[in-house]
Write a structure and sequence with these properties.
Elements: E1 2-7, H1 12-22, E2 28-31, E3 42-51, E4 54-63, E5 66-74, H2 85-102, H3 120-128, H4 133-143, H5 148-165, E6 172-179, E7 181-182, E8 194-195, H6 196-199, H7 203-220, E9 225-233, H8 241-255, E10 262-268, H9 275-283, E11 288-291, H10 298-303, H11 310-323, E12 327-334, H12 341-354, E13 358-363, H13 371-374, H14 384-400, E14 404-409, E15 420-424, H15 431-438, E16 442-446, E17 451-456, E18 461-466, H16 471-476, H17 478-490
Parallel strand pairs: 1-2, 1-3, 6-9, 6-16, 7-8, 9-10, 10-11, 11-12, 12-13
Antiparallel strand pairs: 3-4, 4-5, 13-15, 14-15, 17-18
The chain binds S-adenosylmethionine and iron/sulfur cluster.
The site of S-adenosylmethionine has 20 residues, from strand 9, strand 10 and strand 12.
């Protein structure tokens, strides 16, 4: 257990997150005075103070009551081009903690002091202020302490995203639709994923409420400009094609087919995708779908609870290509239990033969609410250096396939403190993914467990409007959800 004492500030949450990056799995407890430390184990004291009008942050690390390391940061010397003094103070506090812990710890910390989900946002803030590339790299590596390869990666991604973000437009929005059903729940998953076998009788009612919600969103958004549509989940193709087709028709009727710039259906699990399904999507002019392997190793697929084999993925992919989808995305997860570098290479070789237009490489994350988290002791997981080699392979293979990184995000509890990267063939970025990740556009979301995000460009902030995560509540209290969105939009 690690004890944390803060003096003259309350930046507790971010410091606890950063300590966890250095000491994964360890409990961190806040104490109010040094008397609460009984002189055993680790104590971290982080204080903020002023001397001659200059603000400093100091971190002291004690092990068994002995001061082992101390580091002080002069906050006046930080230059991150931020807007508020609070932000400078937070960075100073975190840097002093980082500098204290880094010399003691074997772990690699590629993302430096960053613990958030969206590191590319920092690049956009700097680009908004016309900061040049060299200075952005300096800010990322010296102030935020990123490794140079991560700094260059997010700078490139940020620059690639600019044309999809700018100019900011208060009236532009995308639509997200949640279909929270799946054939079975995968080991690692914490998304809304109700097993279809048990919920068959609820689907028609769910779809009718969903359509009611979409109709209402359309009324609220009159006069504004639809950008993209994304039907995700869950696994949208787990429900009968006639039901999903109703949703697609409802979207076209409400928002106008020709005005939608991009329409994705996350088909996802190959065990739900039939030829009839693909033909229905194609007939309805859906041009982007996902067919997600996660891995191309049958043993692992079985272990993670997916009821399909590698050959099903290949067959489904080829069929989808034959039918004529423009963009097929494939999701992979690196670090799955039992997988070594040879498994990852086998997966990448298979993917290379298929040559998808988009590839999304996730690093396994130990999510709260997943079976994996509850049974983690049963599995053998790779150490950070092997995960790093695996991720480098995914980068090399992507380059070979002509794929370039275009969006990136991180997760709490991600193995090895790494990241998820979306790759695409030139000009085949998924615009929705960028909008959703960078939060520079309103996303109106319908369906159980979905979250609408209303963007306020003048204040550069978003406001979340979540739907219920429970099916019964979603169905019974749909009018409240519609009303919530209306009220929040009226304030925008
Ligand atoms: C919302 S899920 C839906 C995809 C679809 N139902 C499927 O499974 O093919 C989107 C993606 O997130 C990734 N994912 C889900 N849980 C994860 C975890 N715990 N760690 C890393 N990636 C995860 C998977 O690659 C998955 O394809
Ligand atoms: S990973 Fe996909 S298929 Fe598996 S449970 Fe999650 S949403 Fe469902």
């Amino acid at each position: 257990m690690i004890k944390l004492l803060l003096i003259n500030h309350e930046t507790r949450y971010e410091l606890v997150e950063l300590i966890r990056v250095f000491f994964p799995g360890q409990e961190v407890i806040s104490i109010d005075t040094k008397n609460d430390y009984i002189g055993e184990g680790i104590l971290i004291v982080n204080s903020l103070y002023e001397e001659n009008g200059i603000k400093f942050a100091t971190t002291s690390l004690y092990i068994n009551d002995v001061l082992v390391k101390q580091s002080t940061e002069n906050i006046e010397l930080i230059e991150i081009y931020g807007r508020s003094i609070d932000k400078y103070i937070r960075i100073g506090i975190k840097k002093s903690l980082y500098n204290t812990l880094i010399s003691l710890n074997e772990a690699k910390i590629p993302w430096g002091i960053l613990t958030g989900i969206r590191p590319v946002k920092i690049v956009h803030e700097l680009l908004d202020r016309n900061i040049d590339d060299n200075e952005i790299i300096r800010v990322l590596t010296e102030e935020y302490k990123l490794y140079i390869d991560k700094a260059k990666l997010i700078l490139n991604i940020g620059k690639k995203q600019r044309k999809y973000i700018e100019p900011l437009n208060k009236d532009k929005y995308s639509l997200y639709i949640s279909i929270p059903f799946c054939p079975t729940r995968c080991l690692y998953c914490s998304f809304p994923a109700l097993p279809i076998g048990r919920y068959e009788n609820h689907i028609k009612e769910y779809i009718s409420k969903l359509i009611y919600e979409i109709n209402n969103i359309s009324k609220m958004m009159k006069g504004k400009n639809i950008n993209t549509v994304y039907i995700g989940g869950g696994t949208p193709t787990a429900i009968p094609p006639t039901e999903l087709e109703k949703v697609i028709h409802c979207i076209y009727n409400n928002f106008g087919q020709k005005d939608i710039k991009e329409f994705t259906v996350e088909a996802g699990r190959p065990d739900t995708i039939t030829e009839d399904y693909l033909r229905m999507l194609n007939k309805n002019n859906i041009r982007r779908i996902s067919i997600n392997p996660q891995t191309m190793n049958d043993g692992t697929l079985k272990l993670i609870g997916r009821q399909h084999k590698t050959e099903d993925i290949i067959k489904t992919f080829k069929l989808a290509k034959e039918i004529g989808f423009d963009i097929i995305n494939m999701d992979l997860i690196i670090g799955l239990p039992g997988e070594d570098i040879l498994h990852v290479k086998k997966t990448l070789e298979e993917i290379k033969r298929l040559d998808p237009e988009n590839l999304t490489v996730h690093t396994l994350s130990v999510k709260r609410g997943s079976k994996f988290r509850d049974t983690i002791d049963k599995y053998s997981l790779q150490p950070q250096n092997i995960l790093s080699t695996m991720l480098n392979e995914t980068m090399e293979y992507s380059k070979d396939m002509g794929l370039e990184p275009y969006y990136l995000y991180r997760q709490k509890q991600i193995l090895g403190n790494f990241e998820n990267v979306g790759y695409c063939k030139p000009k085949m970025e998924c615009i929705y993914n960028i909008a959703m990740m960078e939060e520079k556009e309103t996303i109106m979301a319908a369906g159980m467990g979905s979250v609408s995000k209303i963007f306020f460009p003048e204040e550069n902030r978003i406001e979340r409007v979540p739907n219920f995560k429970d099916l019964k509540e979603y169905v019974e209290r749909i009018d409240e959800l519609v009303e919530n969105k209306k009220v929040k939009l009226e304030g925008s």
